[in-house]
């Protein structure tokens, strides 16, 4: 008996205690996941907690089922919607055959953005003055660039876009230009691209939308007036600037980019390149790294996980 007990006792120490600890750990895990849903462990603006913003433009958003939320979850500070106007409704999709009744600008972007910003700007007795936090809980002053790529006729479609922004405007969520000289930053900065007419943006002294200028053509006389108040960001096709790329960029190619980025920068305009190579992966990643080193404002990316790893 004694011998048996002495054999059993140590094994209880070795096996019994860890299994008790395991039971405790399960409860701990459930507290860590806050499976109890306790109010002690959540806070009003935690919807985007832990997401670190990255200077990435989520391109080809229509590849994703839930475009705005996917881009947000990866920390992209820029997102894009291709819009088509039919019978007074703005639909979102990359071509006409991809459009459906349900995929509207309002459903896929305006309402989700309103919802996130409402969560980030709660009212409670602790909040004593109005807040205007952006979508990122970790960087509340970071604006989200919202490119609206107008696909149907510019004047009618962009007018409908201006009207569709009204719910965001009413809440004070849109970055605004006042008296043609002062930008008042806000959680969302709308930039018209595609068929957006310059003459619906540039001459307007009080507005809450901006224009995506052609980065490669800023030195042309017709764009001489364009500065950061009209175009906080200008974009161009990467391949059209450097040509097709099979390996590393040459010093000359890098020089072209540097000059464009500098010309834009001197006018208060940030640079964005689309059409960067996505294959081979080594080339794709090295282009991203060069663009970050040359201080573009936004990297364009389809593969949000891959670009996230560059940072
Ligand atoms: C627009 O309205 C017209 C007239 O009601 C209708 O014939 C047409 O199918 C509509 N088009 C779309 C894309 O909704
Ligand atoms: C606002 O400034 C832009 C850029 O200089 C200019 O083209 C436009 O005419 C100005 N608008 C007004 C109303 O003064």
Helix content: 25-40%
> Which shape, going by the Cα principal axes?
globular
Q: What characterizes the major β-sheet?
A: 10 strands, mixed
Averaged pLDDT, please? Answer: 87
Unique ligands: 2-acetamido-2-deoxy-beta-D-glucopyranose
Number of H- or I-type helical stretches: 9
Radius of gyration: 25 Å
Work out the count of structural domains.
3
Through-space gap between termini? 65 Å
* Tally of DSSP β-strands: 12
Please mark out the parts with pLDDT under 50 across 5 or more consecutive residues, or reply none: 1-17
The H/E string reads: HEHEEHEHHEEEEEEHHEHEH
Structural class: alpha/beta
Strand content: 15-25%
Organism: Aspergillus ibericus CBS 121593
Protein name: Altered inheritance of mitochondria protein 6
Signal peptide: 1-23
Keywords: Signal
């Amino acid at each position: 008996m004694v011998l048996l007990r002495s054999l059993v006792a140590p094994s209880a120490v070795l096996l019994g205690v860890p299994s008790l600890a395991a039971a405790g750990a399960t409860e701990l895990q459930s507290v860590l996941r806050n499976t109890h849903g306790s109010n002690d462990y959540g806070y009003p603006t935690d919807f985007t907690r832990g997401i670190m913003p990255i200077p990435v433009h989520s391109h080809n958003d229509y590849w994703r089922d839930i475009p705005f939320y996917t881009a947000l979850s990866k920390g992209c500070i820029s997102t894009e919607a291709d819009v088509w106007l039919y019978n007074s409704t703005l639909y979102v999709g990359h071509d006409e055959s991809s459009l459906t009744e349900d995929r509207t600008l309002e459903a896929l972007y305006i309402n989700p953005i309103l919802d996130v910003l409402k969560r980030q700007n709660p009212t409670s007795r602790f909040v004593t003055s109005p807040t205007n936090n952006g979508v990122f809980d970790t960087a509340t002053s970071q604006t989200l660039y919202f490119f609206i790529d107008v696909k149907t006729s510019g004047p009618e479609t962009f007018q409908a876009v201006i009207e569709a922004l009204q719910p965001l405007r009413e809440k004070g969520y849109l970055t605004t230009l006042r008296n043609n000289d002062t930008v008042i930053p806000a959680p969302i900065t709308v930039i018209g691209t595609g068929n957006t007419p310059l003459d619906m943006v540039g001459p307007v002294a009080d507005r809450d939308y901006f224009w995506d200028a052609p980065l490669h053509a800023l030195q042309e006389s017709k764009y001489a007036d364009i500065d950061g108040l009209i175009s906080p960001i200008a974009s161009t096709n990467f391949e059209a600037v450097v040509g097709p790329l099979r390996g590393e960029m040459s010093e000359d190619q890098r020089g072209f980019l540097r000059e464009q980025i500098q010309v834009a920068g001197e006018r208060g305009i940030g640079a964005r390149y689309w059409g960067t190579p996505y294959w081979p992966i080594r080339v794709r990643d090295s282009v991203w790294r060069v663009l970050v080193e040359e201080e573009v404002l936004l990297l364009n990316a389809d593969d949000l996980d891959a670009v996230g790893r560059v940072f």
